[in-house]
Amino acid sequence: MKRIAESELVDWMERAARKPLIVRGARQVGKTYLVEAFGRAHFSSVLTLNLEQREDMHALFTRLEARRIVQELSLYFNQPIEPGRTLLFLDEIQACPKAIACLRYFQEELPDLHVIAAGSLLDFALREFKHSMPVGRIEYLHLYPMTFGEFLRAMGEESIARHLAAYHIGDDLGDAVHGKLRDLLRSYYFVGGMPSAVAAYVERRDLLEVQRIQALISTTLQDDFAKYGTRAQQRNMRQVMRYVPRNIGRKLRYVNISRDARSAELRTALELLELSRVVSLVRHTSANGIPLGAEASETHFKPLLMDIGLCNNLCGLSLPDDSGLLTVQEGGLAEQFVGQELHAAGLAFLEHPLFYWHREQKNANAEVDYLLAHEDHIVPVEVRAGASGRLKSLQVFLAEKKRDLAVRLNMDTPSIGSFAAALGGKDGTRKPAYTLLSLPLYLAGELDRLVREHFAKRC
Question: Does residue 324 surpass a pLDDT of 60?
């Protein structure tokens, strides 16, 4: 299955000033498959060393000498390692922290050799790293579950995927195409973006098999908890992991997770799940200016799970009988979907933290699901599962922050228009003017590009 990140790997391969690359991402998102498929397509040979499986090879990295390491690997595996022709792939590198430290010497001693490392629990290794980090001598690529666009291509819908990637504000999608995309999006809600689940669905269209694979992934992720901490921490992590998919879009309160565990213990469990990339947090920000993270809260946040398909599985959804899904959980799933798409959008060598905004006042609460930043612009994004919904929170945000563009993601056809909001206050009724860009949910992955396009037209 084709991943968008492969084009990023090609750019890295062709760049003269490249550095050893570390592919980061949660377990089961396809890191190994991506790198090995890329290697087979673009190199004469690939030498893969899985450092989790081959503890006997850890001693190779005791001495920080890249040339000696390459020579010994070549002799041991009876395979030539030639700069420009061979891809050296160090998989599960977090299992051997000394190998991480060695990456700087590959860059210094063998700059022409293409070296890629990957690690699922890399953040844990780096948190307790006792060696000199190769700062400035390595690059990162962040990999997430398959996006909706990648899902479309895997399903053989290449034409419609290209059409979405080339969509411009004001284009007419047509009712037939819109209807087909809604149906495909519903399928993605069930299947999700974990590559093995997508592959099973593409091959057999068997939702029962998809459910079996999702259950296996969920179990494997929880089995990994044994690597993170004490038994009590593992128990707390399981509680948090069960809580998150049922509470997408809601501010996390520790007391709602468990009344038996202390908040500090649950906070630690949440931090461990975030480090493992199983859970990500959408943090509240005051949004008075750029960057949004400068005013992000450490105590007010909403959780997302790594994948929408796993959300359904952990909630106990029986996929062969999906008739009631979108009436029970549609709001949370829409917000989960948009969060996944925003995480994966943009430049792969950067992480994309997510933010939201809320105002808590007596009889005047307001909340905006996501915020986008472009240059000095801050754009509020409202997510709706259906085709309609009130815009009061968007309007409150626009008035308070003196912004004039808002985005609504829902299941209606795309549109753009100018409006005036009627907002009451101590000084009377205000009617701030703003532009509303309304897009169907399936265009969430193109949102950043379309917002940039809008502001470029205004200049």
Answer: no
Other CB atoms within 10 A of residue 400 CB: 15
Query: Which structural domains are found in the chain, ordered by start?
Result: 5-142 (3.40.50.300), 148-458 (no CATH)
The residue among 316 and 98 whose pLDDT is bigger is 98
Work out the burial of residue 139: count CB atoms within 10 Å of its CB; fewer than 13 is exposed, 13-18 middle, 19 or more buried. Answer: middle
SS (H, E, C) 144-177: CCCCHHHHHHHCCCHHHHHHHHCCCCCCCCCHHH
3-class DSSP assignment, residue 298: strand
pLDDT (tens digit, 9 = 90+) per residue, 236-278?
999 999 999 999 999 999 999 998 899 999 999 999 999 889 9
399 secondary structure, DSSP code = H
Query: Stretch 327-341: mean pLDDT, rounded?
Result: 86
How far apart are alpha carbons 205 and 320 in whole angstroms?
11
Q: What is the pTM of this model?
A: 0.92
Q: Say yes or no to pLDDT of 325 above 70.
A: no
The residue type found at 352 is H
Cα–Cα distance measured from residue 270 to residue 254, given in angstroms and rounded to the nearest whole number: 10
Q: How many Å is the Cα radius of gyration of the chain?
A: 23
Tokens 């801050």, residue located: 378
Distance CA 102, CA 132 (A): 9
Read off the DSSP letter of residue 446. Answer: G
179 beta partners: none
Judge residue 142's burial from the number of C-beta atoms within 10 Å of its C-beta, 0-12 exposed, 13-18 middle, 19 or more buried: buried
Instruction: Give me the pLDDT at residue 429, please.
Output: 60
Residue in 315, 233, 231, 221 with CA at minimum distance from that of residue 267 = 233
Buried/exposed 438-452: b ≥16 CB within 10 Å, e otherwise: bbbbbbbbbbbebbe
In the block, tokens 């920000």 appear at: 285
CB 357 within 8 A of CB 397: yes
Q: What does the pLDDT look like over 74-124, one tens digit per residue?
A: 999 999 999 999 999 999 999 998 999 899 999 999 999 999 999 887 776
Sheet holding 296-305, edge to edge: 296-305, 279-285, 354-359, 366-368
Q: Is the peptide bond preceding residue 83 cis, with omega within 30 degrees of 0?
A: no
pLDDT digits (tens, 9 = 90+) for 10-45: 999 999 899 999 999 999 999 999 999 999 999 999
Which single residue is written with the structure tokens 């792939």?
A: 89
